[in-house]
Design goal:
mainly beta; Methylamine Dehydrogenase, Chain H; four-stranded antiparallel sheet; 32 strands; globular
């Protein structure tokens, strides 16, 4: 197997397992990481320096493990979810946070719509909540609404839906569900995806919103078309899948498994790269456990988070950057294994990714407006009345 990715550096700053990595759709020089040390770190990625990345700010405030974090499109804000049951929006240049309270158990997954006006959270309390950015919970999806019967471990907005917002969620109840959201925050179950033999831990959505990949403890990675919920192929790994991520400009799906990192060409259904940590070269103790992976927005860099608190960075070899595996065909097909092919278009080849990035962006809400009352305003949602109240924290 030809070497495709090479190690570029290591980001060290957390004292416990790194649980999530957030990248910006507009900037390649910053990322955020979340950890079980209850903190979030903002990193400045300096590819030409002695150190690959420098920790610029540590964000603290959560009272328990931080389970998920995303970065706003322009890199100015972060959204986090924690086992303390709370969400926070962070203003990265000051460290100020806006706090959302409403879940009755750990928050395991968070996301934000492209226009930055709708926030999503999923919890161990078996609900998904849709919030306005000023802290109002307009919709709660529960089992009574056709929702999940167990802890919701992961969900994501589906990008590039012409007719409105859609989300896809994965649960420990063994199902993946696709939801449509209208302008009034009414949520309607579109369909459920069934195919795994055990509970699912993670999912990923392709950059153009056409495909969903799901994986979990059964060791299978299933690819689905989000337009109709059809399963188009299965990638068998026989190892627990902790995290999945589509490459923005290649037909690659990266899987963080119990046995390391595997990168699949999902059109040809072959493994193009396997990554392992060279413990002897690092001369440090690491149990090798991989927990999450994230591609940079340009697809040139892969960030891999480990249980030892480090993020190891891999980059595409320079001579292969312009290559397109699968020959950059105008359309790509997946062999379904049933004697026919499923045409998925040029997904997610470089040309299509660039086309999506050049599309007119929605009018985005300025998250700085949330911090206009005070640099330390926190928003609370009263559980009993489900109404918003605003309190000021004491100045630090």
């Amino acid at each position: 197997m030809a070497e495709i990715l090479v190690p570029k550096g290591i980001l060290r700053g957390h004292t416990d397992m790194v649980t999530a990595i957030g990248v910006s759709s507009d900037k390649c020089d910053i990322i955020v990481t979340a950890s079980r040390d209850k903190s979030i770190i903002l990193w400045d990625i300096n590819k030409g320096g002695k150190s690959y990345g420098v920790a610029q700010r540590r964000l603290t405030g959560h009272a328990h493990f931080v389970e998920d974090v995303i970065l706003s499109w322009n890199g100015g804000h972060a959204l986090s979810g924690s086992c303390d049951g709370e969400l926070r929006i962070w203003k990265l240049d000051t460290g100020a946070s806006v706090r959302f309270v409403g879940h009755t158990d750990e928050v395991l997954s968070v996301d934000m719509s492209d226009d930055q006006r709708t926030i999503l959270s999923a919890s161990r309390d078996c609900t998904i909540k849709l919030w306005t950015v000023d802290g109002v919970c307009n919709c709660t999806i529960s089992e009574q609404d056709g929702g999940h019967k167990d802890c919701i471990s992961c969900f994501r907005f589906i990008p590039n839906r012409d007719y409105g917002l859609s989300i896809v969620s994965a649960s420990w109840d063994g199902t993946v569900k696709v939801w449509d959201v209208d302008n009034f925050f009414n949520c309607k179950l579109n369909y459920s995806l069934v195919g795994h033999s055990a509970c699912r831990a993670t999912l990923a959505v392709s950059p153009n919103g056409q495909l969903c990949a799901s994986g979990g403890v059964d060791g299978a990675i299933l690819l689905w078309t989000l337009a109709d919920g059809n399963k188009v192929c299965s990638l068998e790994d026989n190892s627990i899948i902790h995290s999945l991520c589509f490459c923005p400009n290649r037909n690659w799906l990266c899987a963080a498994t119990e046995n390391g990192i595997k990168i699949w060409d999902f059109v040809r259904r072959i493994i193009v790269e396997e990554l392992q940590v060279d413990l002897k070269a690092e001369a440090e103790k690491c149990d090798g456990g991989v927990r999450t992976v994230k591609w940079s927005v340009d697809g040139s860099t892969l960030f891999i988070a480990y249980t030892d608190g480090a993020v190891r960075v891999w980059g595409i070899k320079e001579q292969r950057k312009t290559e397109s595996l699968s020959q950059a065909l105008p359309s790509a097909t997946i062999d379904t294994g049933k004697g026919d092919d499923y045409n998925i278009g040029a997904l997610p080849l470089k040309e299509q990714t660039e086309q999506i990035q050049q599309q007119e962006k929605p009018q985005r809400f300025d998250l700085d407006n949330l911090f206009s009352l005070s640099s330390l305003v926190e928003i609370y949602i009263e559980k009993s009345l489900q109404r918003m109240s605003v309190q000021k924290r004491k100045e630090l």
